[in-house]
Amino acid sequence: MPNYPQRKPLRLKDHDYSADGYYFLTICTKEKRCILSSITVGAQLDAVVKLSPYGMAAETYIKSIPGIDSYVIMPNHVHMIIHKANGKSIASDVRSFKALTTRKLGVSIWQDYYYDHIIRDEADYLTKRRYIEENPAKWSEDEYRVT
Question: Residue 82 falls within a domain, yes or no?
């Protein structure tokens, strides 16, 4: 049997991801390909996000996620805040989002995994919300940008 490296668990061991609360998610495209949108940043750091057909499909299904609070579609990833209050798990929402987008496009464009952050209080919420709002203007510095 091959000796594969052990992956670090991505989720908190004892957290109930179907519990009421706010969650910040990041979902990346395969190989971080820039296929969802293009971003133009003006002199005043005003950013214009223009969605591609892939990005438009993603937006359709993001809007259908119960409890979606805010989101941004970057060239190779999406950030969103979800307010969970329906008993379904975050994993279930992400799985549905990816499956519906894949079915619509006829091809899978997403990485297998996603990043989540449990928003713990109002200050944390405001920080994540501001990050989503400001992220397009900072695309040139973005940690997910592949050059």
Answer: yes
**Are the C-beta atoms of residues 49 and 39 closer than 8 Å to each other?**
yes
- In this structure, which amino acid lies at residue 39? I
Structural domain for 110, as ranges: 21-136
pLDDT tens per residue across span 14-69: 655 566 899 999 999 999 999 999 999 876 668 899 999 999 999 999 999 999 99
Residues 6+ away with beta carbon under 8 Å from 16: none
Q: How far is CA 75 from CA 2, 32, 65, 78, in A?
A: 36, 9, 20, 8
Handedness of CA 6, 12, 15, 19 (dihedral sign): negative
Residue 30: inside a domain? yes
pTM of the model: 0.84
pLDDT digits (tens, 9 = 90+) for 118-137: 999 999 999 999 999 999 99
Phi, psi torsion values for 74, nearest 5 degrees: -90, 175
Q: Establish if 1 belongs to a structural domain.
A: no
Rounded Cα distance, 115 and 79, in Å = 9
Task: Say if 144 falls within a structural domain.
Answer: no
Number of domains in the chain: 1
